[in-house]
Amino acid sequence: MFATYLIGLREGLEAALVISILVAFLVKSQRRDRLPQVWLGVGSAVLLSVLFGWLLTYTSTTVLDSSAERELFDAITSVLAVCFVTWMIFWMRRAARSIAGELRGKLTDALALGSLAVLLMAFLAVIREGLETALIFFSAAQTVGGQNGPLYALIGGLLTSAVLGWLLYASAVRINLSTFFTWTGALLILVAAGIFKYGVHDFQEAGVLPGLNSLAFDISNVLEPGTWYATLLSGMFNITPAPSVLEVIAWFAYGIPVLVLFLKPTRRGPAKPATSAPDRATPADPAAAPQNA
């Protein structure tokens, strides 16, 4: 549940920041008349993301007949989810400093084209986060079986991010976004390592990869299944008491190098001079919160 809460919180806050930047820009530009188009675009993106998540679940549980087909489908979606997680955290690390300016530029162009362009721009700005959330959640939830807890945790994370996004927009709180995205990014890499390990296990279950019964170790007497700590490690990082050799190799082959690359300090370019003073009469731009992710 903590893993899916983290997914909802991280992805939700990214979407909330995007929405806050768009809304703040329209308010400051005296273009409140375009706010309905923004909200319609956001709502459409959320609806399509929910539909995509339902389609993944329906395909896995209903469309596919044999267990081998379901295992293969789950394995492929797990690998895709790992790719999206990896791309997302490194993209945010690189683009966090410029995302606000890019969104304002795109929204300015959309305003010149009309209401449909504003709706489409808002839709495209949010749909990526929504589809990523659906895919990553589906893959993470598979590691704990058919339980409702991960879904409730995801909803909780999304609601938390919505509250934080509103507070940032209203300048009620200030969050060091660099610290937030660094810590959540590192945790998500470990979650992704577990998802990748689970995908390898599913490939083995489907007969695509060998070595299902070649165990790397068996610590069931220490990490007893059903205990709270075994459930926590399994649900969060997919650490199981009797993994195969290939599963362990997959976990470390992904988790260690990606974590090292992510935490490696990056060089910063020279800061751009401010072109205008902030408008204190309007809601603060949430992107102005401290960040160097």
TrEMBL record:
InterPro entries (UniProt xref): FTR1/Fip1/EfeU
Subcellular location: Membrane
Pfam family, one: FTR1
Region annotation (Disordered) ranges: 269-293
Membrane topology: Multi-pass membrane protein
Taxonomy, superkingdom: Bacteria
Biased composition (Low complexity): 273-293
Transmembrane segments: 6-27, 39-60, 72-90, 110-131, 151-169, 181-200, 242-263
Chief location of this protein within or outside the cell: membrane
Entry keywords, A to Z: Membrane, Transmembrane, Transmembrane helix
Family membership: Belongs to the oxidase-dependent Fe transporter (OFeT) (TC 9.A.10.1) family.
Xref: NCBIfam families: EfeU
Protein name: Iron uptake transporter permease EfeU
Organism name: Micromonospora zhanjiangensis
Gene name per UniProt: efeU
